[in-house]
Design brief:
Elements (H helix, E strand, L loop, with lengths): L19 H20 L6 H8 L3 H7 L3 H23 L10 H18 L3 H11 L1 H23 L10 H20 L13 H16 L4
Length: about 220
């Protein structure tokens, strides 16, 4: 999908220069993230992670005391990156002159792009969080920061929203889009009926639907 101009320079924020020890730790986290995406957390052993990272199991234990610590570290890093990306993505200066439809399209297109870049990782997070309340709360807080940023961007354009209760309408639309995106990106039982359509077509139809509900120009 070709990016629109509002998010053309938006990227998933990663850390900059690192020490040798930090690079080893990042390699282990990268390997764990890939394997969790492919095999799930339960199906991934510490030996698998060490082998994928090109490290010894002893080196892995130097950084992480056990599998749970590694799991927490993977999702903690994800949370930090998500927060940094959210701050960049919802900076009001980025969206100067943008309409409600522009903001929502940017959200949908970037969410699709990142969902394609990290296949299976969100599902792995969901499965892990179902068994771990602390992890579940952590991921929920991370998600809520994005929703709050989007809400503020949209409320700043409330003059474009014809719905009689803009705040309620925005909450509904963000829930609706999140559900549609999850179904779109989920390869499991909830597979989208629009799976044969391109992401661009999906984004067009999603925007048509939510803008009509908001009574906002598309």
């Amino acid at each position: 999908m070709k990016r629109n101009r509002w998010i053309s320079d938006l990227h998933w924020v990663r850390e900059g220069r690192q020490s040798r020890s930090q690079k080893t730790q990042e390699s282990l986290l990268d390997a764990a993230e890939e394997l969790f995406s492919q095999k799930g957390a339960d199906g991934t052993s510490l030996a698998d992670v060490a082998a994928r990272a090109g490290c010894s199991v002893g080196a892995l234990y130097h950084h992480f005391r056990d599998k749970k610590a590694l799991l927490y570290a993977v999702f903690d890093r994800f949370g930090e990156q998500f927060r940094a990306t959210t701050r960049e993505a919802t900076d009001p200066a980025r969206w100067e002159g943008a309409s409600v439809a522009d903001v929502l399209r940017g959200y949908v297109e970037f969410a699709l792009e990142q969902g394609r870049t990290h296949p299976g990782f969100q599902q792995a997070g969901l499965e892990a969080s179902l068994r771990d309340a602390t992890l579940r709360e952590h991921l929920a807080r991370v998600r809520s920061e994005l929703e709050q940023g989007l809400t503020e961007l949209l409320l700043a354009r409330r003059a474009e929203i014809g719905h009689t209760e803009p705040t309620l309408a925005i909450d509904f639309v963000l829930d609706q889009l999140a559900s549609m995106l999850k179904t779109r990106l989920d390869g499991g039982l909830s597979r989208s009926r629009l799976g044969a359509r391109s992401d661009e077509e999906f984004a067009d139809e999603a925007l048509c639907s939510v803008c009509a509900y908001l009574k906002s120009p598309q």
